[in-house]
């Protein structure tokens, strides 16, 4: 009841006050946001200190019913009674603690907009009115950001290429009042020129200047704001970019490379996003032996090239290219012309004025040594048949760094020429150049010059010459003391000619001359051959024992005259004890080696020469293989002596006895020797006769001669052995058989 009465009173008062308008003070403007809280200020401080607030009433618009009241008429303001009309019951509260006091209105709606009046009654002072205009703000929708093509962008835009022009459109719908739409780059305002469509859509189009690499991951924000109470509503995009490679470096560039040496070159590039693709090029050819990787989150790409440069690469352009595959024409390149160091490459040739196939004796010859080298060579060496050449004007050799001059060449200068040169990387030798010098025929040395032929025997004489060209025409001539005869029947092939002779009488033996002629000239000195009557060969002489072991012997003799024909030699080794032929060797040289003989055995060795006409006198030697057992037993006794002193005494006694026996035997022997020496001379004469017989017989005859000879008996009766030579086993050489036999036999 009281409350109602109060209300009525208040309404009247209020109406009168409003109508009079006298008390209305300045109007305060307050903005509120839908759904949020708003505080409407009202000054309730009494004008004088002795006064107090009695009653506070709030009205809205023209309504005469208060929407809120604070009744403090029965106490102080702090304990006053708050009440509100039904519409506001839960949403309002008048706070008297704040200064000024405020009517707090929560969860505001658009309907709350309007004009509010606050009436304050004091106990003593006059009633005070204050007017507050509440405007309700409707927030705009969250801005949408689209690109130039109208595609919506969420958070990250791109990737765009560096340098692209970018258009960003920001739109926001609704809002009351209509919002302002601004573009921000990070925290910097860059565009505030927005417009509104008739459909109440606010938009702002941002033209971003050409994108720079610094714009990578930069945030562009569009802010919509229509009040200064709440925070602006914003949307942001981050810019993603493809970046071009910026730097390119090559480790080891411009340095000379060494031919044939495996080289690694490293190329690194930075600044590309996504990582750059690195390729290596030699001129226009892509190189494949590469390895690549990235570091620093792909900012740096590295590629190593494994490369084996060769001489041919000199001067070629080697380059490394880095490219962002996402950006056209983003490639950057770095390269250089290769400098290749290599060992000298030499090529030897004749001087240009000369034609190789036609150099003749007496011409001047020029050689050129073509050199390809980096670094340049320090010295050049010329060689002829591996011997170094040096300038010798008297010999007609002139060397001037890369050329060699041979003046008036001689046949002896034929052969291999080379030049060689050295640089810090090594030494190399040119191709050998085989210098051919044409010359007239010359007689080949070392030919058989004596031909032996029996009467009516047909014999071929070979004539060999040296000549270049080898197309030789031959001439033959026969010369004896009586006549000179040109021979017309012979056969020739290249540098050899063959003439056939068949002497019938003494006049058909003599000197044969042969000479050749080729395109260069005629042979100056003819080849000489002697056609002599042929016979059996002479016996060997000066035989010596070269080596002697338990199982082998080695002998060497001097050859005798071959009787005008080719000869060979025979050695027979007879075992004197077993009457056995141990070995029978033939040889083209008068040198023999026989092995596989029993040790400590005596042998008779017979050596003779044989040719087509027969055989020579035999030379007979006597020798012995070394005794193997003797050596061993000596060693054994020595060994025993060291172990037993008793044995030593025993051995000494035995040795004494043996010595005594030896002395007796020696005494007997010297007596018998004196008897023998007289017989020996006679035997020697017999022996020579016997060998003369041998010579006239054929080879089998020798065997027959020695059939009757008994080597075992000869041991017992040395006098019966003809021409036997006592070979000392300790002596390595043998003297002439005849001399030795004399000394051996007459000693
Ligand atoms: C809000 O804006 C109003 C007028 O537009 C102004 O009077 C008031 O001072 C502003 N408040 C703030 C906190 O900027
Ligand atoms: C990428 O490379 C560029 C160019 O060298 C450099 O400026 C930049 O700092 C690098 N970025 C990173 C993340 O290393
Ligand atoms: C290195 O680069 C070449 C050429 O671009 C490419 O073919 C190859 O797959 C790359 N290799 C690696 C391991 O990245
Ligand atoms: C020059 O050549 C001549 C004739 O061949 C020779 O006797 C002489 O030793 C050479 N001189 C030198 C310095 O080799
Ligand atoms: C050859 O040597 C002479 C001096 O001996 C020098 O002046 C000249 O340059 C050299 N020629 C070449 C092609 O090296
Ligand atoms: C024949 O030989 C004799 C002496 O051996 C010699 O004096 C003479 O000049 C030679 N005659 C010819 C034509 O070779
Ligand atoms: C015999 O041979 C020796 C060496 O084998 C040699 O020195 C000597 O001259 C030769 N004697 C004869 C006459 O051939
Ligand atoms: C003798 O011959 C033996 C066996 O063939 C060999 O070992 C030795 O070296 C030779 N001695 C000489 C001096 O030739
Ligand atoms: C040894 O050999 C030669 C030729 O081979 C032969 O003529 C000779 O009869 C042989 N001597 C013996 C004793 O058999």
Automatic annotation (TrEMBL):
Region of interest (Disordered), ranges: 727-747
Domain Ig-like, first and last residues per copy: 35-135, 143-238, 245-333, 344-430
Organism, as annotated: Limulus polyphemus
Sorted UniProt keywords: Disulfide bond, Membrane, Signal, Transmembrane, Transmembrane helix
Endpoints of the signal sequence: 1-21
CDD domains reported in the protein's UniProt record: FN3
Family annotation (InterPro entries): CD80_C2-set, FN3_dom, FN3_sf, Ig-like_dom, Ig-like_dom_sf, Ig-like_fold, Ig_sub, Ig_sub2
The protein, known as: Nephrin-like isoform X1
Gene3D superfamilies: Immunoglobulins
Domain named Fibronectin type-III: residues: 536-630
Matching PROSITE patterns: FN3, IG_LIKE
Location of this chain's protein in the cell: Membrane
Claim: Ligase is one of the keywords in the record: no
Superkingdom assignment: Eukaryota
Membrane topology, record value: Single-pass membrane protein
TM spans (from-to): 646-668
Signal as UniProt keyword: yes
A Pfam family of this chain: Ig_3
